[in-house]
Amino acid sequence: MAVTKQKAKNQGMMLLREDIENKSFRKVYLLFGEEDYLVQQYKHDLIRAVVDSEDAMNLNIHRSENLDWGQIQDEILSMPFFADRRMVVLEDTKLFMSRNVGKGSGQAAEDREADDAEEPASPDGEDASAGTEGPDEQDLSAMIAAFLPKIPDTTVVLFVEQPDEKKAGGRKGKVSVDKRGKLYRAVSKEGLAAEFEQQDMQSLTRWVAGRLTAEKIRITSGAMERFLQMTGSDMSHIETETEKLVSYAGEGGVIHLSDVEAITSEILEGKVFRMIDLIARHDRIQALNLYYDLLQLREPPRMILSLLMKQFDRMMLAKEVLSSGGGIPQIMSELKLADWQARQLVGQAKYYTPQQIRNLTEECVRMQQLVQSGRMEERLAAEILILKSSC
Questions:
Q1: Tens digits of per-residue pLDDT, 225-263?
Q2: Cβ distance 24 to 17 under 8 Å?
Q3: Handedness of CA 212, 216, 219, 221 (dihedral sign)
Q4: Which of 139, 181, 266, 301 is the most buried (most CB within 10 A)?
Q5: Domains in the chain: ranges and CATH
């Protein structure tokens, strides 16, 4: 089941790769998702496949929320200049964001979209209801959606949207692409909407191993685990740190754990994970020392609190899986973890009873509420939580 879900999530990326390799292009593409590294990579690959990136006559790129739709229509409808195709790229338009959805009003939004679909459109693809002073963003989204079928076969239109905003602890903020929206549905019908999600640790492991193998560099399993623990799942950061490993080891070299720890820049989540290891083993002195080191590095205590709560949530799920007869594979599947991550999580969880983990999760929430209300300083809240969880 997990494999099937992963294939479904990667389907857009696989179809896009096939289009690029076969040079068989659709009228319109939308690239978006949490993994901006892959979005940008495939954006450049698609542009290079369709047109010469130096061909200013057949490549138009717009990076703005304020679009001159009249000019863009002219560019889309123009014939390519001494080439097979022309390409129009629209980046970070914000036109795919939901603007008519209030809290808990998902069905109402769909009802309004259905009403919008019944509005008459003018022959050139513009809504008949558009005012003379120019459309607002919602009207423009509808106009573009109505226009997409009119894109000539000699033009490829590419939308690229920024990743969703993130709040403390990795929670979602504003969603950059609303899949219920009229424009998203129009792109999916006339072309391809490809979502690039954060890659799981197995995929990242293969990616890093492939890069090192290309340089004839070997890495021990322990070093690979530590490397990904230190870098996290952001592919841009992983690429930077992998290049450092390549330069350090040289062709034919071998990378050991000590090499990784000597040259790799560790992200906050990796440091907090180490701190939780110390907390779980009731080594409060070393845990506090690591916490103070994080403060010296100007890491925000509020983010540390959020990551602690996230890890206790994971421990609770791991406990539930194990108590119901499941094992490491199920934990890996449900939490999208690599084998070594799931094993480390189980190793941390074994030091607590389910009730203790539940109490610590509730304590995280209470501390966050105290901080948000201004009744406790962030630094003190994190210190108290470290002391309570390492008892």
A1: 999 989 988 899 999 999 999 999 998 999 999 999 999
A2: no
A3: positive
A4: 181
A5: 2-195 (3.40.50.300), 201-263 (1.10.8.60), 268-389 (1.20.272.10)
